[in-house]
Amino acid sequence: MKYTIKLVKTKKDAKQFTELPIKLFKHIDAFVPALSMDEMNVFDPRKNPVHEYCESIRWLALDEKGKVVGRIGGIINYRFNEVFKTKIVRFTRLDMIDDIEVTKQLIETIEKWAKSNGMDEIIGPIGFTDMDRMGMLVEGFEHLGSFITIWNPPYYKEHLEQLGYIKDADWVESQIPWPKEMPEKVSRGAEIVRKRYGYEMFKLKSIKELDSVIYDAFEVYNKAFQPLYGFLPVTKAVQDYYIKQMKSLVKLDYVWFVRDKSKKIIGFGFMMPSLALANKKNNGKILPFGWLRIIKAIKKFDVVDFYFVAVDPDHQGQGVLSLMMEDGIKMGIRDKVCHAETGPELELNTKIQAQWHDFDPIYHKRRRCYIKKL
To answer: Which residue from 35, 40, 48 is spatially nearest to 14, judged by alpha carbons?
Structure first.
């Protein structure tokens, strides 16, 4: 069948683009949708300041009856290309029915767009920043997704590889059983770190205090994540964009900051009660009653999601994480957490994965960013 590829121009087109995965996969137990409001905003240059140095575009695939059967987005991060001397286009939000012809036409459309803009390489699925959704699921399809990751069926991988795409980078995700009591190794390690280096872990008492520390924390984040795949430091305007999203959801008991002797922030950790089931029931919608489910999930939970931990490179390997881990375990025991889900961790980032070895992690998901020369 020949499909029609349509450029997203109107608000109706944008809504169809955003909601396609929900229509395709809401019946799948493991599928968790993105928050529709955020997905609408992320492509809007008036709302997402990343467009100061990025260009984005979206297309829909329609069948002969006009039904939406596929979608794909394209991103050119001009600042990234300038810094790393590359000519890369990113594809993102690829979703489609199980018909290789739909995938082929969507991919050919973005490849043509990339070439017309002087690009010579395409990678994806990957978003605007490291905080955006990235990585196609290639293992662990049966496991419940998370609030911040992509779920897709196995045929996505098969389609891309038939079209000449190969692995560029993989991320792994783990399920970590929560300790019933504080491991002596963790408490002993945290005490040694406090005495040896004078580090101090602290938490905020109110969301109003966030502004006084968050920009210093993002400075640590930018330094710590600099060597990682596809990363570009997040500008202040983009930081503000994510801070605004975070403020409405954050649970301060699971946000940690670590200072050195001079009171400079050198570490930053962020976890959240799992919002997967709540957002699944909401079908990605906040209104009219979605917020109630989200608030309930934040108050009563037994699963937590690791979002990220960042430690200043000058202080890595000196036990900063142990201070956050000690308090995190206390909070989890108090809240009767049964297990945690890590976010995607680059398979080559053995340092972060080594932190979980003593907790008998279950490696249960793998996701991939593909690449193709144009």
So the answer is: 40
pLDDT tens figures, 274-283: 999 999 999 9
H/E element, 123? strand 121-124
Does pLDDT of 288 surpass 90? no
Reported as type and span, the H/E element at residue 96 is: strand 88-96
Q: Tell me the pairing of strands 339-341 and 303-311.
A: parallel
From residue 152, alpha-carbon distances to 140, 248, 301 in Å are: 10, 27, 25
User: Is 189 found in the same domain as 167?
Assistant: no
Q: Are 62 and 68 in contact (CB under 8 A)?
A: yes
Count how many domains the chain has: 2
Among 70-79, 148-157, 218-227, 240-249, the minimum mean pLDDT is found in: 240-249
Task: Measure the CA–CA gap between 261 and 318, rounded to whole angstroms.
Answer: 14
Do 164 and 45 belong together in one domain?
Answer: yes
Whether residue 349 is contained in a domain is answered as: no
User: Coil, helix or strand for 49?
Assistant: helix
225 and 122 within one domain = no
In a domain, 370, yes or no: no
How far is residue 104's CA from residue 116's CA, in Å, rounded to a whole number?
Answer: 18
125 prior amide bond cis, ω within 30: yes
Residue 138, in any domain of the structure: yes
From residue 58, how far is each of 74, 126, 284, 288 by CA, in Å? 6, 14, 20, 28
Specify whether 29 is located in the same domain as 163.
Answer: yes
The pTM (predicted TM-score) of the whole model is: 0.94
Query: Taking 80 as the threshold, does the pLDDT of residue 170 lie above it?
Result: yes
Question: What is the per-residue DSSP string for 329-349?
Answer: HHHHHHTT--EEE---EETT-
